[in-house]
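Q: Study each token:
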Amino acid sequence: MSKIGYLFLSRSLSTREEDLNWMNTFGCDCIIEEEAIQEKMRPQWRKMVTELTKGDVVVVSKLSNAFRGLRELGAFLGLRHEYNIRLISIHDRIDTSGELFPSTTQVDVLDAFGSLPAEAISARRSSARVLRLRKDQVIPPKTQLRLDKEKMIVSMYQAGHQVEDIWKVSGYKSRTSVFRVLNRNGVQLNRGRHQGPIKRTVKNK
């Protein structure tokens, strides 16, 4: 018999540390944390379910954190009945063995089932937003190449290389471009006739 904790790390999960402490105190043998970007497939959850054996205990934060709807919950309850799996939902205060949460009534359980669809939809929307934000943060290849080149130029200058040498390996057409990169990255020139902050040339009107 194993005690397994499961947490789906959606943005709506504000009790992660609290839940981890509860699961550890309860004596979970392992705690699975599923990343929000895995909302559609939930490979960790699927793997856990397929490896359950008779008499295992599954601890979740809330029903809506583990199940995406009543259909998934119903399928799991069927599995629970067949293999005598004990399901504990911390914040719904549900324990299918009846040992914990003695004050929980049948009405409380039905209310938890009734609120599951809306809460699960909220969690899915939150996870979808995380995925969109991560996609927005992806740097285009051309921009990444430019940033890598600028990083190389700054590193070479700070390592003591002459501007002439940096310019030759940079691929820029003129040394002025090297100075622009150094200026853009806040590098203060410190050798030769190029010392101090880079100043813009002001043309007289």
About this structure: The mean pLDDT is 84. The helical segments are 16-26, 43-50, 63-66, 70-83, 106-136, 141-158, 163-170, 175-184. The two ends are 85 Å apart (CA to CA).
